[in-house]
Write a structure and sequence with these properties.
Strands 1, 2, 5, 8, 9 and 10 form a six-stranded parallel sheet that branches. Helix content is 48%, strand content 12%. It contains twelve helices and ten strands. It is an alpha/beta fold. 42% of the residues are buried. α2 links the parallel β1 (31-40) and β2 (70-74).
Length: 316
């Protein structure tokens, strides 16, 4: 009887989601997407302030040119060298805010929730909110949180306790539906830039754009399979060397697929995001996979395309 009730509840959720298509831009036939950036001020290389400024400035110029709103998630520990905050690093965050991009909390240390006790992880959340909260003071933007590695809890108890803690501090969890392994490509790209073989860097960049197309195809298919329509998508990428050079091309390709940009808050008005996240485990999959758990649909996790092995090998 319990399984029957769960199945009926899942069907009701799916029916309500489909009926409420008009709440998202996808209902009119236009595809919509929100952009999110993780690991601010920059994923790697914080000792090279000039490179970090270049990356930040380049990303913000591209976002402005494409009129693409975004939310950016901060690891506050990257502002420090040992126990001392580096003002020039904090100034990078101010560039994002002045560029119209609100900041969210990605914890202080980027701990993996699978590896540290819950109380220590929660302390790291509080420690990670100081500078971003100060810079966002007076903003009407929701108080966003994104889990490092998008690991939301290895057990049902840990996940529920953390969600209660986040709610108590006024946070909204920022989900994602599309992730394109940009951190893998960026690691290979950064290495290639340091060699005389600039053709390799260009090859990696092109492979990244091609793989993003593959992932968009996959997530659009999964969206249609899960909700019988195209939902508002949320893309998770990082502030890194690759996007200092490739973000304009990336956004242009996405626009050519028929997408228009929207805020994270507006994307989450799509009825799909009212579907519960019942996924529990040590991995951090897209919410498209998590929702399939709630809707009692077959898992498609193993079917998700991997980045090219030759790119992965360049990071070793």
């Amino acid at each position: 009887m319990t399984r029957l009730l769960a199945g009926l509840a899942a069907l009701l959720i799916l029916a309500a989601t489909t009926a409420a298509q008009g709440q998202s831009g996808s209902a009119s036939g236009a595809r919509t997407m929100a952009l999110t950036f993780d690991d601010l001020p920059k994923s790697t290389g914080m000792d090279d302030l000039e490179s970090a400024r270049r990356t930040t400035g380049s990303i913000l110029r591209v976002l402005k040119a494409h009129q693409a709103p975004a939310v950016a998630f901060v690891n506050e520990g990257k502002l420090y060298a040992g126990p001392t905050m580096v003002p020039e690093r904090a100034a990078l965050l101010r560039m994002w805010v002045e560029g119209g991009v609100p900041l969210g909390n990605h914890t202080y240390s980027h701990f993996d929730l699978n590896d540290v006790p819950l109380d220590r992880f929660q302390d790291d959340i509080v420690r990670g909110e100081r500078t971003s909260t100060r810079l966002m003071r007076g903003s009407a933007e929701p108080r966003w949180f994104r889990h490092p590695y998008t690991h939301t809890g290895p057990t049902r108890e840990i996940k529920a306790s953390l969600e209660k803690f986040l709610t108590g501090r006024g946070y909204r969890i920022a989900p994602f539906t599309i992730e394109n392994s940009d951190w893998v490509f960026s690691a290979a790209y950064t290495r290639a830039l340091r060699t005389p073989d600039q053709a390799l860097a260009a090859k990696i960049r092109d492979a990244y754009l091609a793989y993003t197309d593959t992932m968009l195809d996959w997530c659009e298919t999964l969206s249609a399979e899960t909700f019988n329509r195209q939902i508002a998508q949320i893309l998770l990428i990082h502030s890194n060397d690759l996007h200092a050079d490739a973000l304009d091309a990336l956004l242009t390709r996405i626009e050519k697929r028929g997408y228009r940009w929207m805020t994270l808050a507006d994307a989450m008005k799509d009825a799909a995001y009212a579907t519960p996240d019942d996924f529990v485990g040590t991995s951090g999959p897209s919410w498209l996979h998590r929702w399939r758990v709630s809707l009692n649909q077959p898992s498609r996790l193993r079917d998700e395309p991997d980045p090219p092995q030759w790119v992965v090998d360049l990071t070793k």
